[in-house]
Amino acid sequence: MLRLRLRRVGRKHDPSFRIVVTENTAPLKGKYLESIGFYNAVLKKREVNHERAKYWLSKGVQPTDVVHNILVTEGVIDAPKIAVHKRSQKQDQGQEQEESEDEKAKVNSEEGGGGEPSEEKSAKEEENKEAEEVKEAKEENKKAGKQDKQDESAEDEKSETKE
């Protein structure tokens, strides 16, 4: 399968790339069929041969996400950009929780709050409360454990100073 992807040609600490048509399994610095443009990351310059890009896209060549975004900015294709930055796991989890809460709120507002029977709601609410209480108890135990250790060390110091 052919792909449109970036091939680095710049020197150290000066990233510059060619936009090339190459086999998907080919090594990054390997042979390529055609170069259809370039992208200089430092100077933010880019140039794409629109005709050749459209030709290869019509043949079924798939661009990588970054090349897709470059083609969108150059006006070669009309499509939304693709998010290519990596997200941390914490951000992903936070977003999933927000989405699930939003979906629950939508369902409840659309159905007038009668999405689940009241018995199931109360059981789930109780489980959530119990889980929160367990977490709080663990945190308090940790704090108390630290305080106990501090108290013991303070008592040891006092007894040593008296002797």
UniProtKB/TrEMBL annotation:
InterPro entries: Ribosomal_bS16, Ribosomal_bS16_dom_sf. Residues 153-163 have a biased composition (Acidic residues). Residues 78-163 are annotated as: Disordered. One of its GO terms (molecular function) is structural constituent of ribosome. The keyword Nucleotidyltransferase does not apply. GO terms for cellular component: cytoplasm; small ribosomal subunit. The keyword Ribonucleoprotein applies. Residues 118-152 have a biased composition (Basic and acidic residues). Gene3D superfamilies: 3.30.1320.10. GO terms for biological process: translation. It comes from the Bacteria. Keywords: Ribonucleoprotein, Ribosomal protein. Belongs to the bacterial ribosomal protein bS16 family. PANTHER family: 30S RIBOSOMAL PROTEIN S16, SMALL RIBOSOMAL SUBUNIT PROTEIN BS16M. This is Small ribosomal subunit protein bS16. It comes from Candidatus Spechtbacteria bacterium SB0662_bin_43.
